[in-house]
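Support request, please re-run this one:
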Amino acid sequence: MLSKRSPYSISFGRIPNQYISRSLLIEDIIDILNAEPVEEQAFKLTGIRGTGKTVTLTSIEKELKDDSRWIIVDLKSNSEISKELVANLYGEVPFLTSFIDTNLNLSAFGIGINIDKKSPTTSMDVILKRILTEVKKRKKKVLVVIDEARKTDALVDFIQEFQILIRNELPIYFIAAGLYEDIESLENAEGLTFFLRAAKYEMKPLNLVIIEDDYERTLGISEEVAHKLAELTMGYAFAYQAFGKYMWETNSKEITKTVLALVDDALAEKVYNKIWSELRAKEKWYLSFIVSKDKMPVSELLELTKTKHNEWSLPRKRLIEKGILDSSEHGTIKVRLPRFREYVNIMKNE
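Re-run finished. Output below.
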């Protein structure tokens, strides 16, 4: 008998009770973070909305918080990043609170107290370097985490400063998670060649066999229905949660029209409406042809649209970068998002 509360969740930003961990990716990043000597100090997580970037970040943080060597600071792209980092270190780490009060006058930034009446320290670069030197003496490490990272002047400045800090062999590390286009915009920003070279992890589809097994055990459904459900998710993390949630809440043992309608509504409201609103007219136009089949040869698309390769190349590139299209099979394209074909068919008729 299923309890009333679903273990699946379609709320962004928290770890659901029932979820499939990207354990290999998480273990890989944590192993690199803990490696001696240091191999990498900056990481990028990228993918479309609903692929589990935030959950993965949270899992990495939770594991590192059990290790006393790590100091973890969550920041926002549009904040005064360096100042916020120093303020967090001052407020949350006792040995740094004492160190700053004794050695640094940060009154110009509204941080700390001025015990010795020293002249205010006005360079945030100098402040961070001195604080991280103290962190290094204590054999600890600072991890800066920025979710929903996007190109801002503050983040560009911080990444440039971060590069200087790691050249000085200071123990600061950085993980940024963001949409494909937002991470790419940062990678291509002037002066951020270092960030372009940083380790990059794409949030790829979840394993369908693991999803099938999870559904069968958690929902108490047959292997056949669990298999069909897993295929419907296409490995998309949000769809995995949505199908699980509505199968549970309707107590369905089969995939009903009601379940499909509820999932479609959730996908549209939480993910697809935003994706669709950000597409250009030409991209929407091409999609209206592509969704007529499970997969389509490019030659057929060009014939249907009466267009040439050079006209299709830019929309193709953008649709692939946004995580909407899969072109891994040579000469063929297909939609990689679950129930997105149905969504596009509705939108093109409105």
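The longest helix spans residues 257-277. The longest strand covers residues 172-178.
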